[in-house]
Design a protein that fits this description.
It comes from Butyricimonas virosa. The chain is an all-alpha fold. The chain has helices at residues 3-12, 15-47, 50-58, 60-86, 90-117, 119-125, 133-145, 147-162, 166-190, 194-218, 235-269, 272-308, 312-339, 341-346, 352-365, 369-384, 388-409, 411-414, 416-443.
Length: 455
C-alpha cells in the first residue's frame, strides 16, 4: 500500500477497524519479541544455570539504556512521520527517515563503544557479584558489538509502522524472533557457547531483520523510501525527533536507574538468587507490558495522523478504544500471575529456592496491573499528539517520583518484601497522577480546540 493510500485510510476508515489494523500487527510483533526474551531466559536457565539468570538480570539496566537511545530516535521519528503524513507532506517525511537512519547509526556506535570500554565497572555498579559478573560480561560484550544493528533495526522499524506498513513492521519483528528461537538453542546447547551464544543469536537475528527493513526502503514503489538528498542531518528535524522521543527515552533511563537500585536491594536483602528471581519476574511482567505497548504503537499513527488533520472526534474515539484494550490486557496479566504463578515460574528454573522467591515476587508486583494499563495508554496518548512535556512528566512520575523513593525507604522496614511492594504502590500513585493530569487538560479545553469532521 502506498503512503498516499495509507493517508486516505487513516482519514476515512472507522477508527475501531484502524486501531485493530495497526495494533494487531504491533501486538503480535511485541508479543513474539517478548516471548523470545522469555524463551531465551528459559534456554539460559536450563542450559547454563540459575546464576546465569542472575547474570542476565544484571544486564537489564544496560538493555534498558539500549532501548532508551533506540526509542529516542525511533519513537520520535515515527510520531513526527505520522504527523507529517497527516499534513500530506511526504518530502518532510522522507527527510525524517534519512535523519532517523543517521542518528541510529551514530548513537549505536557511540553508545556501544563507550560502554564496552567501561563494561566491568558498570556491571559492578549494577549489582554484579564475583559469581554473576562473568555471565553478565560475556552476554553484554556480544550485544554491545552489535549495537549499531539493534539501534538501526528498532528505529527504521518504528518509522515503517508509522508510515502505513504495520504488517511489514510486524513481519520484521517476527523474522528476528523466529531466527533467534532457532539459533539460540543451537548456540547454547549444541555448540556449548553458553550465555555468549544467546547474545550472538540475538545479534545475528537482528541483522536478518535489518536486511528485510532496508529492502523495504530501497523499493522504488514505496513513497517513503531511501532516496538522494534525505541523508542530511537537519537541526529542526533532530530537535522535533528528540522532543517527542524524549518521553520514552527518559522513561527507559529511569527504568535503568530503577533496575540498578532493585538489583542492589535484592543483593542486599536476598543475594544472587533474589536478583535471579527479579530477572524471572521482569521477563513475565514485560510480556504484558510489551503487549500494551503494541496497543500504543497501533494507536500512535491513527491518533497522530488525525490530530494533525484536526479530526478530533476520531482522536477521542481511538483513545477510548485503546483504553478498553489496554486495561483488558493488563487485567488478564494480573489474573494469570495470581492464579498460576507456579506454572509460570516453573518454565524458567527447577531450582526450588529460586522458584519460591519468584512466585512471591510475581504475585506482589502485578497487583496494580489493571491501573497501570490505563496509565500507559494515556501517557502515550500525550506523546502521540506531540505534547512531549506532559508525556515526559507522566513517564517519569511512576519511576522517578514514586518508585525510587519507595525502593529507598520500604526495604528498611520490610526487607525483601518492601522491595517487591514498592512496585505496585508506585503503580497506584502514578495512575492517580495520570488521571488527574488528563482530566485537567480536558476541563481546560487544552486537547481539542477545534473540530474538522467526523466519520
Amino acid at each position: 500500500m502506498s503512503s498516499i493510500n495509507a493517508s486516505q485510510v487513516l482519514e476515512t476508515k472507522p477508527v475501531g477497524k484502524l486501531l485493530l489494523q495497526y495494533s494487531i500487527p504491533a501486538i503480535i510483533g511485541m508479543t513474539v519479541t517478548s516471548l523470545y526474551n522469555i524463551i531465551d531466559s528459559v534456554f539460559i536457565g536450563h542450559g547454563v544455570g540459575p546464576l546465569a539468570i542472575s547474570g542476565l538480570a544484571i544486564t537489564f539496566p544496560l538493555m534498558n539504556l539500549i532501548i532508551a537511545f533506540s526509542t529516542l530516535v525511533g519513537i520520535g521519528g515515527a510520531t513526527i512521520s505520522s504527523i507529517y503524513l497527516g499534513q500530506k507532506d511526504t518530502e518532510k517525511t522522507n527527510s525524517v527517515l534519512g535523519n532517523v537512519l543517521l542518528l541510529c547509526v551514530i548513537n549505536g556506535f557511540c553508545f556501544g563503544g563507550l560502554t564496552l570500554i567501561f563494561l566491568d565497572p558498570i556491571l559492578h555498579f549494577f549489582g554484579a557479584s564475583p559469581a554473576t559478573l562473568p555471565y553478565a560480561r560475556d552476554f553484554m560484550q556480544v550485544i554491545l558489538m552489535g549495537n549499531p544493528i539493534a539501534f538501526t533495526f528498532i528505529g527504521l522499524n518504528n518509522v515503517m509502522r508509522a508510515t502505513g506498513y504495520p504488517k511489514k513492521a510486524m513481519l520484521s519483528s517476527l523474522l528476528t524472533v523466529f531466527a533467534n528461537i532457532i539459533l539460540a538453542p543451537i548456540f547454547i546447547f549444541h555448540l556449548d557457547w553458553g550465555i555468549r551464544g544467546a547474545a550472538l543469536a540475538t545479534v545475528i537475528s537482528q541483522s536478518i531483520g535489518l536486511i528485510w527493513i532496508v529492502s523495504h526502503y530501497l523499493n522504488k514503489n514505496t513513497t517513503i523510501r531511501f532516496k538522494p538528498g534525505i541523508f542530511k542531518l537537519k537541526s529542526r528535524i533532530i530537535m522535533s525527533i528528540f522532543s517527542i522521543g524524549m518521553s520514552p527515552f527518559l522513561m527507559n533511563v529511569c527504568a535503568s536507574s530503577v533496575v540498578i537500585i532493585l538489583n542492589n536491594s535484592f543483593m542486599r536483602y536476598g543475594g544472587d538468587l533474589a536478583i535471579g528471581a527479579y530477572g524471572i519476574v521482569n521477563r513475565v511482567l514485560t510480556l504484558f507490558i510489551m503487549i500494551e505497548i503494541g496497543v500504543t504503537q497501533g494507536m500512535q499513527p491513527v491518533i497522530g495522523f488525525n490530530y494533525g488533520a484536526l479530526l478530533f472526534d476520531r482522536v477521542r474515539k481511538t483513545l477510548r478504544y485503546a483504553l478498553i484494550a489496554g486495561v483488558s490486557i493488563m487485567t488478564f496479566g494480573f489474573l494469570l500471575s495470581q492464579l498460576f504463578p507456579s506454572a509460570i515460574v516453573g518454565m524458567f528454573t527447577d531450582n526450588h529456592e529460586l522458584m519460591e522467591l519468584s512466585k512471591f515476587g510475581l504475585r506482589v508486583t502485578c497487583l496494580m496491573f489493571p491501573l497501570a494499563g490505563c496509565q500507559i495508554i494515556i501517557t502515550n496518548f500525550f506523546q502521540s499528539i506531540g505534547k512531549a512535556k506532559v508525556s515526559i512528566f507522566l513517564s517519569l512520575s511512576r519511576q522517578l517520583l514514586f518508585l525510587i523513593p519507595f525502593l529507598l525507604i520500604l526495604p528498611r522496614f520490610w526487607g525483601i518484601t518492601g522491595v517487591w511492594s514498592s512496585m505496585p504502590m508506585a503503580d497506584f500513585i502514578s495512575f492517580m497522577t495520570t488521571i488527574g493530569t488528563f482530566m485537567y487538560f480536558v476541563r481546560k479545553g487544552l486537547l481539542f480546540k477545534t473540530n474538522k469532521t467526523i466519520e
